C-alpha cells in the first residue's frame, strides 16, 4: 500500500463475521424499537413493524423509523448502550492478529463503527482480538447521521493526509463505502473478515 497512509476499518461483519449475526441483530433491533415505542399498544407497534421493516434492519433504517414517528433517537442509543447485543459467536470468525499487525506495520489504523463500545469490548475479548494496533476506536454517536462521512473527514484532518491516502474497509456500501468515496478516500467493500493484507498491497 504505497499511497495509503491511514486505514479505517468497520467492525461488525468486517473485522469479525458470523452466520448467526443477522437474526440476533434483527431481534435486538425489534426489542430496541419496542423500548422506544413503549407508550404504544402492542397492536399499533406490530402494525408499524410490518409496515416499516419490510427489509433487513440496519442502523440507518432504525434512525429513519424513529425520526419518522417523532420518537427520541437517544432512547435507541441508550438501549444499545445498556443492552449489549448478545450473539452466538460459536460459528463466527475473526481476522487474525497477525494480519492486523501487517496492516499496522506501515499504516495508522482506526476503527469507525456504529457498534457500541460495550459490543466491541465483548467481541474483541471473545476472539482475543488485539485492539492495541489501532490508534483510535471511534464510536458513531449518530449526531452526524448513521453514515461515517464526518468521522472520515476528521481523521483526514487529524492525520494531515490527502483524502486519497485514507483507505476505508467495510461491509456496507451505504454506511462505510459511499461516505468514504464522497470525501475522496479510497474504499474497499468486503463480504466478511476473510480478507488478507496482501489483497490491498497494490493500493
Molecular structure report:
With 203 residues, the protein is an alpha/beta fold. The chain has two domains: 120 residues, Rossmann fold, CATH 3.40.50.1000; 62 residues, no CATH class. Helix content is 43%, strand content 14%. The chain is built from eight helices and seven strands. The strands form two sheets. A five-stranded parallel beta sheet has the order 5-4-1-6-7, covered by helices on one side. Helix 1 crosses helix 4. The chain is globular, with a radius of gyration of 18 Å. The termini are close together. The relative contact order is 0.21. The mean pLDDT is 89.
Please supply descriptive tags for the structure shown above:
Rossmann fold, 203 residues, alpha/beta, five-stranded parallel sheet, 2 domains, single chain, 43% helix, two-stranded antiparallel ribbon, 14% strand
Amino acid at each position: 500500500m504505497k499511497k495509503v497512509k491511514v486505514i479505517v476499518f468497520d467492525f461488525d461483519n468486517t473485522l469479525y463475521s458470523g452466520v448467526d449475526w443477522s437474526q440476533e441483530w434483527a431481534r435486538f433491533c425489534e426489542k430496541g424499537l419496542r423500548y422506544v415505542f413503549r407508550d404504544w399498544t402492542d397492536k399499533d407497534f406490530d402494525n408499524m413493524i410490518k409496515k416499516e421493516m419490510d427489509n433487513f434492519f440496519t442502523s440507518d433504517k432504525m434512525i429513519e423509523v424513529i425520526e419518522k414517528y417523532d420518537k427520541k433517537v437517544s432512547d435507541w442509543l441508550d438501549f444499545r448502550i445498556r443492552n449489549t447485543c448478545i450473539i452466538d459467536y460459536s460459528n463466527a470468525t475473526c481476522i487474525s492478529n497477525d494480519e492486523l499487525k501487517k496492516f499496522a506495520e506501515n499504516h495508522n489504523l482506526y476503527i469507525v463503527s456504529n457498534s457500541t463500545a460495550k459490543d466491541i469490548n465483548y467481541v474483541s475479548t471473545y476472539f482475543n482480538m488485539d485492539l492495541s494496533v489501532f490508534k483510535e476506536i471511534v464510536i458513531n454517536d449518530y449526531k452526524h447521521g448513521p453514515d461515517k462521512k464526518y468521522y472520515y473527514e476528521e481523521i483526514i484532518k487529524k492525520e494531515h493526509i490527502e483524502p486519497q491516502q485514507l483507505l476505508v474497509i467495510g461491509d456496507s456500501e451505504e454506511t462505510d463505502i459511499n461516505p468514504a468515496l464522497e470525501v475522496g478516500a479510497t474504499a474497499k467493500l468486503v463480504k466478511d473478515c476473510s480478507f488478507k493484507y496482501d489483497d490491498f498491497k497494490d493500493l
